[in-house]
Amino acid sequence: MKIAVMGGDGFIGWPTSLHLSDAGHEVHILDNLSRRWIDTELGVQSLTPMDSIQERTRIWHAETGRRTHFNLIDLAKDYELLKKWLAEHRPDAIVHFAEQRAAPYSMKSDRHKNYTVNNNVNATHNLLNALVELNLDAHLVHLGTMGVYGYSTIGAAIPEGYLPVGIETTDGRTVSQEILYPANPGSIYHMTKCLDQLLFQFYAKNDGLRITDLHQGIVWGTHTQQTRRHEQLINRFDYDGDYGTVLNRFLIQAAIGYPLTVHGTGGQTRAFIHIQDSVRCIELALKNPPARGARVEIFNQMTETHRVRDLADMIAKMSGAEVVRLPNPRKEAPENELIVKNDKFLGLGLAPITLEAGLLNEIVDVAKKYAYRVDRSRVPAVSAWTKDLAATVNHDPEGKRLKSVS
Ligand code: USQ
């Protein structure tokens, strides 16, 4: 297939591009390189040293003989350029990662809220709009989030996208319908993914676009089979308080002798998936498109659930790291249960990589190798969900001002 990977320079976009290229597909990366600019804005860098996208694709070609093509296009701003590119290349499928993906970044200030909404919603809408305008029947696979469902304890498994409901009619009968599971975003970022869902619903219904939405959990790990092939193909690896995600952060913190930063009681239960499984799921989704005219296909892209404090305790035991409980800068349920259905990917043959010491140690080793690149002052998560919470943020979890809430 000819596949366009929108956001193909990012944390999942890059390993996905290599995975698909390795599988024999013709891969075109479209990216505005915003993630690199945000590193510059925040004054942080990936733990792993990353080459330019042009250099990465050159190395991939030298290693494998396969070409991935890079195009500098901003989906949210360059509508005409995007349309022109799509008209010229007419891809069979599009994988859409081209969104600002960090919840803490989206909550930093009013400017960051505006940026996240404008970027994410416009990028998705421009893409859908262009597909219709060009009469292009490319299968669109979008990376959504488990966070669209929210994290309240409901005592039932979260279904894959749709909830069967009974509605009482005016004449007293009950009619059955399947509706999108009620959206319950926990950040501006998560809210944009809820808005995406509505855009998809409309365009699938009105224009018959073939769309798959992947509700992904928190990704852990850094290497995939392809990024391991050459030092310069290495994936980015975020540790900072805005872009680092919880399990990877704990592993890096353990590697550099930084206390593991548990927010609140650590009773938050979340869904997880290894990055290798993430790229496999995207390939499986591409192989199983919905029919034209069908409703949006939704998969829960996760393989297991864990409570934050259990992860911290496990990594502390493995590494001897200290655990600190910090005032939570986020407005979220302090404790929640989470049961998630993921039968669809399992049914398509996904054999999940679950948390086990071997892979966790591999990540600690990567972190130790590049520990010299870490700026410890960027480890604390200081982006607060409200002005009140901002006043309680601990800016120095390893310093004398340590405030434990346990
Ligand atoms: N947390 C800590 N300590 C830390 C960092 C995070 O206790 O040092 C806690 C947070 O308070 C939260 C949980 O860990 O309760 C998860 O936080 P996270 O930063 O790992 O994940 P999140 O902000 O939810 O976002 C990440 C990705 C996002 C993706 C989402 C999937 O950045 O792109 O959509 O995971 S999900 O969480 O299932 O919505």
Automatic annotation (TrEMBL):
Pfam families: Epimerase (PF01370)
Signal peptide (UniProt feature, chain positions): none
Superkingdom in the source lineage: Bacteria
Listed pathway(s): Bacterial outer membrane biogenesis; LPS O-antigen biosynthesis
Domain NAD-dependent epimerase/dehydratase: 3-291
Record family assignment: Belongs to the NAD(P)-dependent epimerase/dehydratase family.
Name of the protein: NAD-dependent epimerase/dehydratase family protein
Biological classification of the source: Bacteria, Pseudomonadati, Pseudomonadota, Alphaproteobacteria, Hyphomicrobiales
